[in-house]
């Protein structure tokens, strides 16, 4: 009797997100073409509707200022979730950053306020790490608890610290801190004035490009430059170093990582504490750059929007930066009372929805295609039948954009495989 020997192949090594996958990744030239297409579309909308503020330097500068805290919160979420810990508590960590940043900023210097804001966020991250990593508490429950605790803590201590003595004499109240000094802003001399003069001519595309570049080189806070450096640094640390590979392996397959000698708990702790520090930095930006004071409710849900930007960016720094820029642009519109600008962008939304409908019908996704056509028709009727957008809708623009972007990008997302899963030490031994 003969027998055919069969052998079971050894299990494949776990894939760590960031390498090649079945889904093609956009190349740099393609990304540039997409950016150019978006700029052309915005130029056309400005030229057709006459809404000059859509691509003005003031709008872009405000959008960048609004995008930084959202992007920093999202960057914190990226660090945490790449290590396998869902961080819904970003909002609470941002709240701690606004409070401690303003508290230290008005008493000492704004840069010490920035450091205090980072430390405040890191304390929130440490609490989240202890709960989720050491004690195995559900990540969502822990994050929500941190949001509630941070809100209660800052509300109580604002009444205690900002409403008495020297703080009250300098403008403090139960809901806000005394003002802190400004953090230095930089403007590139000559270039900013030249771009402003080109923008005033309202030439198609050229003036729009000048307005966008002008907004990026005028009154740029040093903290904004630091945020850009952190985005670049995060990419190199997480995707170009052995430390980053080990950290990401904890979010993909912690059991396999531990079997290879990685101390999973340590990496998760580091990631979540860094996550809290980045969210705290975003909060400090709000209280020391955007307004120079702490205000109750100052974050306005930006921690959640940062989480949405991270998801939109597919858990990668580049995509997160684009998502934060989009949400920051929408946030700036409502802050600048942009009823006319939002109304003009309805035309752009109509074109995008039509293009999406054509693509879905081509891919034989008939239900989604028909839904896109119906929504596009409704948007067109809205645009043609009105001259401006109600203030209430303008105020809700950032949150509506968040919902639209997540719904349209949901099918291409790929989260870390072990994200949000409980892990107990010793499973890989």
In brief, what are we looking at here?
The protein is mainly α. It has 18 helices and 2 strands.
Architecture overview:
The protein is mainly alpha-helical and 429 residues long. It is 69% helix and 1% strand. The chain contains 18 helices and two strands. The protein has helices at residues 28-49, 57-82, 90-107, 110-134, 139-161, 165-169, 191-199, 206-217, 222-240, 242-252, 254-259, 264-290, 302-312, 317-335, 339-362, 366-385, 391-395, 397-409; strands at 185-186, 220-221. It has a two-stranded antiparallel sheet. Mean pLDDT is 87; it is low at 1-14 and 17-24.
Task: Fill in the keyword field for this structure.
429 residues; mainly alpha; 18 helices; disordered N terminus
N-end to C-end Cα span? 41 Å
Q: Looking across the biggest beta sheet, what order are the strands in?
A: 1-2
Low-pLDDT regions: 1-14, 17-24
Q: What is the tally of beta strands?
A: 2
Strand content: under 5%
Radius of gyration: 24 Å
Average pLDDT score: 87
Shape: globular
Helix fraction? 55-70%
Taken in chain order, the helices and strands follow as HHHHHHEHHEHHHHHHHHHH
Q: Counting H and I runs of at least 4 residues, what is the number of helices?
A: 18
**What structural category arises from helix and sheet content?**
mainly alpha
Largest sheet: 2 strands, antiparallel
């Amino acid at each position: 009797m003969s027998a055919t020997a069969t052998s079971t192949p050894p299990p494949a090594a776990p894939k760590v997100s960031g390498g090649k996958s079945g889904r093609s990744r956009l190349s740099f030239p393609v990304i540039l073409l997409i950016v150019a297409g978006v700029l052309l579309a915005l130029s056309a909308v400005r030229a057709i509707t006459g809404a000059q503020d859509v691509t003005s330097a003031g709008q872009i500068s405000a959008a960048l200022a609004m995008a930084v805290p959202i992007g920093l919160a999202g960057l914190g979420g990226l660090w945490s979730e790449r290590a396998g810990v869902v961080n819904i508590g970003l909002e609470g960590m941002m709240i701690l950053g606004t409070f401690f940043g303003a508290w230290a900023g008005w008493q000492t210097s704004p840069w010490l306020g920035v450091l205090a804001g980072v430390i405040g966020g890191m304390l929130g991250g440490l609490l989240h790490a202890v709960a989720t990593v050491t004690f195995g508490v559900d990540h969502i429950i822990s994050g929500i608890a941190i949001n509630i605790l941070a809100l209660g803590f800052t509300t109580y201590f604002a009444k205690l610290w900002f409403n008495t003595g020297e703080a009250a004499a300098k403008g403090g109240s139960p809901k806000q801190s005394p003002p802190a000094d400004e953090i230095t802003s930089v403007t590139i001399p000559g270039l900013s004035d030249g771009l402003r003069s080109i923008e005033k001519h309202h030439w198609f595309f050229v003036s729009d490009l000048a307005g966008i570049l002008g907004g990026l080189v005028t009154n740029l806070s040093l903290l904004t430059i630091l945020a850009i450096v952190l985005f670049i640094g995060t990419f190199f640390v997480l995707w170009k170093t052995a430390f980053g590979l080990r950290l990401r392996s904890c979010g993909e397959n912690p059991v396999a990582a531990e079997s290879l000698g990685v101390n999973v708990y340590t990496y998760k702790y580091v990631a979540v504490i860094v996550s809290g520090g980045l969210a705290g930095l975003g909060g400090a930006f709000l209280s020391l750059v955007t307004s120079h004071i702490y205000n109750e409710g100052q974050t306005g849900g930006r921690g959640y929007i940062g989480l949405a930007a991270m998801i939109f960016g597919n858990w990668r720094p580049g995509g997160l930066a684009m998502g934060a820029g989009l949400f920051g642009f929408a946030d700036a519109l409502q802050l600048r009372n942009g009823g006319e600008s939002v109304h003009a962008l309805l035309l752009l939304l109509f074109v995008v929805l039509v293009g999406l409908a054509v693509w879905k019908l081509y891919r034989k996704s008939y239900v989604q295609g028909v839904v896109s056509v119906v929504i596009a028709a409704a948007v067109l009727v809205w645009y043609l039948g009105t001259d401006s957008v109600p203030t209430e809708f303008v105020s809700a623009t950032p949150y509506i954009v968040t919902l639209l972007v997540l719904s349209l990008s949901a099918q291409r997302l790929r989260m870390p495989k072990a994200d949000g899963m409980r892990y107990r030490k010793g499973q890989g031994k």
